[in-house]
Amino acid sequence: MLCHIQSLCLVSPFLLIPSPHCLIPIHLCLTFSLFGRSVNNFLITGPKAYLTYTTSVALGAQSGIEECKFQFAWERWNCPENALQLSTHNRLRSGGHGWIWGGCSDNVEFGERISKLFVDSLEKGKDARALMNLHNNRAGRLAVRAALKRTCKCHGISGSCSVQTCWLQLADFREMGDYLKAKYDRALKIEMDKRQLRAGNSAESHWAPSEAFLPSAETELIFLEESPDYCTHNSSLGIYGTEGRECLQNSHNTSRWEQCSCGSLCTECGLQVEERRTEVISSCNCKFQWCCTVKCDQCRDIVKKYYCTRSPGKGSA
Question: Would you indicate the residue range of the signal peptide (predicted)?
Fold first, then answer.
């Protein structure tokens, strides 16, 4: 399994956050200490430069974490809670999300500027890893652009569609998650351009991060090191191991990762697959009765679930 050091999970339509592979957990804090930024052609100074957008970014980050959990649910590293700790001093408000601009293209340029303001500014290092993270941030933003869809609405007598109004719209969040996960699975292991590093040696130098890598890698996710196998618990690296994880067996209409989950999570990690039977009570035989109720029976079913467990006689690693 590849190690993408700080690979990407989608956050809101525009923002990307790092997810740690073979590193200690990262704490993503959305209150910062920089003092002034020019955003959308007007200047915001002091704490307001960040607090103005913190709520929206935090909502997007939370959505990104949930998408990360979905995409990695059946892999050894499964986007655990402590890996992406999100904190903000603002209370999250529910308003302002779930809407689509009618007749106007989504403002990707503004979203990209906010992404750089919150995410790229986290990289203060002067090494290859910082450059890699900045590159992956940019690749994520390019992925959002590449997935824009042309949406049209017809106008005319009796739906003749003699006139159309068209605009660019962001892809569905799940589509973007699938797109980035596919890029993650085929990420490139890259050697840094040593000449560029000697010339700049800083993530904040005058040349762009993409200049340190091959031009062909501009839109791809990259990594510098191989990852551990994530089978064994290692608290110093924030790795929980796979003991106790649920896997799927004999499942139909599932993804490749789900079909292989018991082998990947259990067998290949030196664990056995244990079948557990659980009684589940659910509503069944529901009937509508006039007027106006629905009455159901309570049915009991035995559901089989499978977990990775250590063989008897083997101690914990």
Answer: 1-22
- C-alpha 283/C-alpha 300 separation (Å) is 9
- Is there a domain that residue 99 lies in? yes
Q: Is-contact 203 268, C-beta < 8 A?
A: no
Q: Which residue do the tokens 């035989």 mark?
A: 285
Residue 302's pLDDT is 92
CA angle centred on 133, ends 115 and 185, rounded to 5°: 100
* Site of tokens 């990762």: 257
Tokens at 313, concatenated: 């006689």
Q: State how far the Cα of 299 lies from the Cα of 302, in Å rounded to an integer.
A: 10
We report the CATH number of the domain holding residue 266 as: 3.30.2460.20
Residue found under tokens 């957008």: 53
Query: Is 112 part of a structural domain of the chain?
Result: yes
pTM, two decimal places: 0.68
Residue 229's pLDDT is what? 85
Angle formed at CA 240 by CA 18 and CA 86, multiple of 5 degrees: 35
Residues of the domain holding 44: 2-234
pLDDT reported for residue 98: 38
